[in-house]
Structures are given as structure tokens and as C-alpha cells.
């Protein structure tokens, strides 16, 4: 199987502020495979350095070193330390001759910007039928955020659900105060709090999950399949955010599900990947059958529409030409 790759860097439509800083652009690598009969396939490597996945330079080094003809055996040698590359190559290989996919629309959770803008930003997605929202916290002080949250919770209709994402930005004392506040004021509308403490504080995270009423989801703690496995062995009782683009080969999740991981505990979420990876993820969802709204409501920051024809793929392959350099095998 012959293949080509192309590095891109695309500015976000607006900066995304999280507890870990402000993001302004997103880089990755698009892959294009073609077999002897002319069947094509596409894949995307979209690592998030600083997020437990590899760096883009590590993926570039991998692409430079792989031979001009791919086989499943070669793809299987991609090391565990490069989970975004594993995802990109495995899904690219699976897509050859299968495109375009016919995909279902799933309920989506709309991401709201940190701070007061959330009070406006939920309304348009609500009018379009979305009922789950996520708000970035640990960006302002707890007092400021709880003030805004009081208004937001009062404004949201009773059937709406709100996720809070602290991106590991609280310490234990702050988290305990926040959970006490949420137990009193959550109004039945808080679906869960995502990554309240830094990813490595596993004992404190386990204790919190066993003592507070509000559900907790791990995100940064469980970026790759190996980490998910580790937390399951530790007895993590809560939810798990899966960012498929950073997770490794999708087959790893199939195995965990076959071994009894309950699908209701999973929340699938975007890593602000591009259209090729997003479409590959939605193809995986046909197998994974998500039970909760997908954390893919990120259009405000990056437009990544599902690709529904080979012409769409071809256009996407060429679209980011101006952002990155081209490399051909
Ligand atoms: O999960 C969602 O609902 C939206 C996506 C999101 O929040 C996100 C996007 C890129 C990187 C990290 C995160 C995060 O969950 O913290
Ligand atoms: Mg998160």
C-alpha cells in the first residue's frame, strides 16, 4: 500500500482558554493511502503535546522513517508511545476502499467558552436541539465562576445537562469546596465534573469519587488505552472521557468493551482534530454505540465537518496546503 503524508497547522477560529492555558492553533498530519487497484483511504494524526500524547515532531520522525509501502505488520510496530500515530495509521488502513462512510448523527454536547460568555453561548445550540453543555472552569476564581454558574443554572431549562471541565486546575481543597457547592446548588443539572485534580493525583481522585455526590469523569488521567486499563485496575468507579484521536488503536477500546467495561461510563470527546480524524471517530462510534452526548460540539473553535464523499476527502487533503509543508513518500 503506497502512502503520502502532509503536515498541517490550522489556526483556531477563536482562542480556547482552559485551566492549562490558551490554545490558538492545531497541528497534525494527514495521511493518504492508495492500493494497487486505486482504492484510497485517509487518516489523520492529531497529537496534543502537553496532553499525555506524543509531540508532532515525534510523529514527523515516524513518518520520515516508515517505508514507502505500508503493511498491517508495519503499522503494528508503531510504538505505544505514539498513540495518536497508532490511531491515524490504523484508521487510515481500515478506510481503504471503504470511503465514504455512512454515518449516524449522535447527540452532541456543546462546548461553552470559559467565563461569562457561557451565559450567551448555550442559547444557539439549545435552539438547534442540543441539551447537553460543557463549561470550562478553573479559569477564573471559584467565587467568580460560582456566581456565573448560579445564573447559568437558573437560565438552563430543567432537561438541560451541564458538564464542568476543570482540566486538572483545582487543588484538593478547592475541589472539595466546589463539590460541596455543587451538591447544594447543582439543581440536578450537573451531569459530571471532568478532571477536577491534576492527572497524577490518583489517590485523591479516587477518594473524591468515593465521597462526593456529583459524578466525576477522568480525562487527562486516561488519555491512552494503557492509562484507562491502569485506572480500571485501580478500581476507578466513575466516568472515563475517551479522546479517540489520542487513545491509540481503536481496537484497544473494542477489547476493553469485550472485557466488560460498561459503555455507560464512557464519554467520547474531541481533541480538536480535523475532519478526517473526526469522520474516522464517527465510524468507530458505529461499533462503540455511545450512551452519552458526544463531546464534539467544538465548531466555535474549529470547523471539522463529517466527510461524506471521496470528493470531500480530496478537498480536505488539499485545503490545508497553505498551512503546512508537503512531504511525499
Ligand atoms: O469534550 C468536549 O466536550 C469538548 C472538547 C474539549 O473540551 C477538549 C478539546 C480539546 C482538548 C481538550 C479538551 C478537554 O476535554 O479538556
Ligand atoms: Mg476535558
Automatic annotation (TrEMBL):
It comes from the Bacteria. Residues 115-215 form the Mandelate racemase/muconate lactonizing enzyme C-terminal domain. Keywords: Lyase, Magnesium, Metal-binding. It comes from Thermosynechococcus sichuanensis E542. Coiled coil: none annotated. Transmembrane segments: none annotated. Its cofactor is a divalent metal cation. It holds the Pfam family MR_MLE_C. It catalyses: (1R,6R)-6-hydroxy-2-succinyl-cyclohexa-2,4-diene-1-carboxylate = 2-succinylbenzoate + H2O. Belongs to the mandelate racemase/muconate lactonizing enzyme family. MenC type 1 subfamily. GO terms for molecular function: magnesium ion binding; O-succinylbenzoate synthase activity. Its EC number is 4.2.1.113. This is o-succinylbenzoate synthase. The active site is at residues 136, 243. Mg(2+) binds at residues 165, 194, 219. NCBIfam families: menC_gam_Gplu, PRK02714.1.
Amino acid at each position: 500500500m503506497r502512502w503520502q503524508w502532509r503536515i498541517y497547522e490550522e489556526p483556531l477560529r477563536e482562542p480556547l482558554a482552559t485551566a492549562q492555558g490558551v490554545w490558538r492553533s492545531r497541528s497534525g498530519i494527514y495521511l493518504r493511502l492508495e492500493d494497487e487497484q486505486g482504492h484510497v483511504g485517509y487518516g489523520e494524526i492529531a497529537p496534543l503535546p502537553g496532553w499525555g500524547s506524543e509531540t508532532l515532531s515525534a510523529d514527523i520522525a515516524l513518518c520520515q522513517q516508515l517505508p514507502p509501502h505500508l503493511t498491517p505488520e508495519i503499522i503494528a510496530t508503531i510504538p505505544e508511545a505514539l498513540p495518536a500515530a497508532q490511531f491515524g495509521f490504523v484508521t487510515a488502513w481500515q478506510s481503504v476502499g471503504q470511503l465514504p462512510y455512512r454515518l449516524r448523527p449522535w447527540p452532541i454536547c456543546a462546548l461553552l467558552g470559559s467565563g461569562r460568555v457561557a451565559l450567551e453561548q448555550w442559547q444557539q445550540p439549545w435552539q438547534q436541539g442540543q441539551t447537553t453543555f460543557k463549561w470550562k472552569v478553573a479559569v477564573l476564581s471559584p467565587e467568580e465562576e460560582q456566581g456565573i454558574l448560579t445564573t447559568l443554572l437558573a437560565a438552563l431549562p430543567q432537561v438541560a445537562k451541564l458538564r464542568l471541565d476543570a482540566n486538572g486546575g483545582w487543588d484538593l481543597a478547592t475541589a472539595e469546596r466546589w463539590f460541596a457547592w455543587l451538591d447544594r446548588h447543582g439543581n440536578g443539572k450537573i451531569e459530571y465534573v471532568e478532571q477536577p485534580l491534576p492527572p497524577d493525583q490518583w489517590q485523591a481522585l479516587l477518594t473524591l469519587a468515593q465521597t462526593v455526590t456529583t459524578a466525576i469523569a477522568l480525562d487527562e488521567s486516561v488519555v491512552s488505552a494503557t492509562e484507562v486499563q491502569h485506572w480500571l485496575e485501580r478500581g476507578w468507579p466513575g466516568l472515563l472521557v475517551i479522546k479517540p484521536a489520542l487513545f491509540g488503536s481503536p481496537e484497544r477500546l473494542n477489547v476493553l468493551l469485550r472485557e466488560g467495561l460498561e459503555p455507560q461510563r464512557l464519554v467520547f470527546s474531541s481533541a480538536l482534530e480535523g475532519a478526517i480524524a473526526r469522520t474516522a471517530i464517527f465510524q468507530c462510534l458505529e461499533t462503540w454505540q455511545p450512551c452519552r452526548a458526544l463531546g464534539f460540539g467544538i465548531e466555535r473553535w474549529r470547523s471539522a465537518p463529517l466527510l461524506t464523499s471521496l470528493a470531500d476527502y480530496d478537498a480536505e487533503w488539499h485545503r490545508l496546503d497553505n498551512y503546512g509543508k508537503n512531504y511525499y513518500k
